[in-house]
Amino acid sequence: xxxxxxxxxxxxxxxxxxxxxxxxxxxxxxxxxxxxxxxxxxxxxxxxxxxxxxxxxxxxxxxxxxxxxxxxxxxxxxxxxxxxxxxxxxxxxxxxxxxxxxxxxxxxxxxxxxxxxxxxxxxxxxxxxxxxxxxxxxxxxxxxxxxxxxxxxxxxxxxxxxxxxxxxxxxxxxxxxxxxxxxxxxxxxxxxxxxxxxxxxxxxxxxxxxxxxxxxxxxxxxxxxxxxxxxxxxxxxxxxxxxxxxxxxxxxxxxxxxxxxxxxxxxxxxxxxxxxxxxxxxxxxxxxxxxxxxxxxxxxxxxxxxxxxxxxxxxxxxxxxxxxxxxxxxxxxxxxxxxxxxxxxxxxxxxxxxxxxxxxxxxxxxxxxxxxxxxxxxxxxx
Amino acid sequence: xxxxxxxxxxxxxxxxxxxxxxxxxxxxxxxxxxxxxxxxxxxxxxxxxxxxxxxxxxxxxxxxxxxxxxxxxxxxxxxxxxxxxxxxxxxxxxxxxxxxxxxxxxxxxxxxxxxxxxxxxxxxxxxxxxxxxxxxxxxxxxxxxxxxxxxxxxxxxxxxxxxxxxxxxxxxxxxxxxxxxxxxxxxxxxxxxxxxxxxxxxxxxxxxxxxxxxxxxxxxxxxxxxxxxxxxxxxxxxxxxxxxxxxxxxxxxxxxxxxxxxxxxxxxxxxxxxxxxxxxxxxxxxxxxxxxxxxxxxxxxxxxxxxxxxxxxxxxxxxxxxxxxxxxxxxxxxxxxxxxx
Lengths: 382, 341
What we know:
The complex is a heterodimer of chains A (about 375) and B (about 350). With about 375 residues, chain A is α/β, with parallel strands linked by helices. Chain A is built from 14 helices and 15 strands. Chain A folds into two domains: about 1-135 and about 300-350, 3-Layer(aba) Sandwich (Rossmann fold), CATH 3.40.50; about 140-265 and about 370-380, Response regulator (Rossmann fold, 3-Layer(aba) Sandwich). The longest helix of chain A has 18 residues, at about 305-320. In chain B, strands 1-2 form a two-stranded antiparallel sheet.
């Protein structure tokens, strides 16, 4: 019923974007499936907005972009991906914003030999797939940076509070896998759901366990709930937040409670503060400036840049593939996939992608910066 | 020490659930509608207050005007076979003039930095008429339908209102400023003024509802409709009027709940559903009929939730919603269950 309600809006999005699609059939066609409604809307809407900043042509070929909403639902994402492949004959699929939907798209991409750029993290079994490349930083990379920072800050015992879903499990899993290497011990593990109105119980238990620091495995403004609760109950230690929490809405809601907190983030949240030598600065500044010019100051997000980065990769890979085959053919898709896998490094806004046959994540430590919050702004810290 | 915190937290949330549960019981007994979108009124209320705090004109005002316009069209359609001037003027005033006036008031008042109580009242003023229009658009044409049809209509209204919430408020959550910022220390307990407001408002609404049903003619008409719809019509109670009254009350209670809960947590466009469900658990325990049992059960739901979030946070929702199962078994075994007439 909800999907039907918004199905009315999908054609509007397609129409507005098919402005790009005014000329011949040999254009490079890109199918984008994104959760701009439903539970992933907070992530999907900035992604959808970012698509509007894409160029109209690459390597002399017009781009035809088709955007569909999958409402974060894997079955809708599958239908969208099949439509892209069968009806629109796309050369590459981009999306989705939520992990389950991205897994579904990856399945179709692998089966139909279509290159796929995922805008959400996916499990290792999926990122090993031949046709799928992952844009966001994987949890392991973020966790290693955060854990190293915790070790440097002298943290030994950690209280963990996270979403009671796969996102929360993901970070707890990192503690179990590599926490010991950094001398970290989790002494309390609590869970909550994003729509919960109170986390007092969980917070009381965390505070009672007296950890050196608290790690919050949550995303968006939902991550602000334990942050505020912990400070209200007088927890004075450091709080560590994942890159999912790095949004201006978080700062707006947490206010003063966001002090003394370390956030992991992709560099695109604060490209201004990067040194000029950073490879991510040029792309990041260009993207953030364009985005905030169109959608207002302070609207940048952690998620939108993945769309920009997908295009940064395609900008270099499409011309290479064009030399080998014509768009719309299986040969072109194979050539494009090879160009993405071997054509790196691709400097982008969230990191420098350097894919290999056995590594479709492609990012290294250049894709993570550590931030603190000061006066409602994020600042880079060491 | 920890237990007192948990109890306080549980009672605060329970008071909100009690308001929702009461609204659900009220609506079900008068109109036989299981009103799933009750939570949406809460979310709309909280988000409207949060936007007013930011000095913005909340989108709910334009939504209200749209609702009114649609309701007016419905009225026009039902008047197509001719009508008298009085009915037409009344419909015009209720559906077009009223939201227009509220829209005007909000545009004038929103940029002024009003005291928080005034903002709360303005929020309630904006949300309450929505109940009238939702009834007019979705339920009045179905007034004589079965409970199941009304339930399906409720699901539709819920999804539509949630979708509109996403369009108008965006996907990220908002948090309103508290009505009062003070904290009081009673023994070891720290009580915030906001939670005192919640207790006060809940008690006031319960007492108010009691007085309304016991002392006023309209309240008695509502009770009569609840007991026997056909009989009430035979003795001259206008059941459409009782329907409108029930929905207006429910929307007002929803708006009050929203104003109360907005400052203590982050509200998203889709938060209302879960809060509403917990009120629904309480209403079920009250058999969808008893106000006092519902209120007590709601406090119980709040306490269970608060303690389970301390002892087994991963299983919190399972425990809270699991409460409903033994009650359902007991209700169906005790044979008090009667098919609708």
